[in-house]
Amino acid sequence: MRMLAENGIATPDDLAQVVPPAARLARGPVAIAECFQNIPCDPCYHSCKQGAIKEFTDINQRPQIDFDKCNGCGTCMSRCPGLAIFVVDAAYGEQEALVKLPYEFHPLPAVGDVVTAVNRAGQAVGEARVVRVQNAQAQDRTAIIWLAVAKDLMMEVRHCKVKGVG
Ligand code: SF4
Ligand code: SF4
Which residue, by CA, sits nearest to atom 8 of ligand 1? Predict the structure, then answer.
């Protein structure tokens, strides 16, 4: 099976390997590690206090998340140098889902801002509302932005742009 398109964007086959089952998504926040390269890296495993990331038997291994143990806390997200981990909460609202994403650009969006929701290919796919910005020292310079998005976009939105910037 061919993995990752030449442009580095995850293919549907890649994503099918890492997305939680629909029943788990429906229960609330859960991490998705969109980490598709075998590289020597494992801070996600060491950061998870829930033991939800299975122990690496080889540092080049890709992370495997036990979705039943993961509570969607997001601690692993700001430890991931590849900015490859996202948290999705499909149970956030009737019409909206929550997407937590790592964000290293400036200026940071502010709570209440309506930002442009962007997909993995960098394309605008709609709008999103910023509901929380986590930027404490614990985040180690990788802020975590919580976006409320239309439910049908929760598996598309993986970045955002502050309107009028860039
Ligand atoms: S979101 Fe929290 S519980 Fe889930 S894998 Fe990451 S650190 Fe572990
Ligand atoms: S920390 Fe990020 S890049 Fe490194 S193995 Fe974990 S998910 Fe992949």
Answer: 48
State which CATH number among 2.30.30.100, 1.10.287.130, 3.30.70.20, 3.40.50.280 fits the domain covering 33-82.
3.30.70.20
- Cα(84)–Cα(107) distance, integer angstroms: 21
To the nearest whole number, what is the mean pLDDT of the chain? Answer: 93
pLDDT at 4: 76
- The yes-or-no verdict on residue 1 having pLDDT over 70 is no
Q: Ligand 1 within 6 A of 74 CB? A: yes
Domain boundaries, the chain: 33-82, 86-166
| CB-based contacts of 121, cutoff 8 Å, min separation 6 | 7, 9
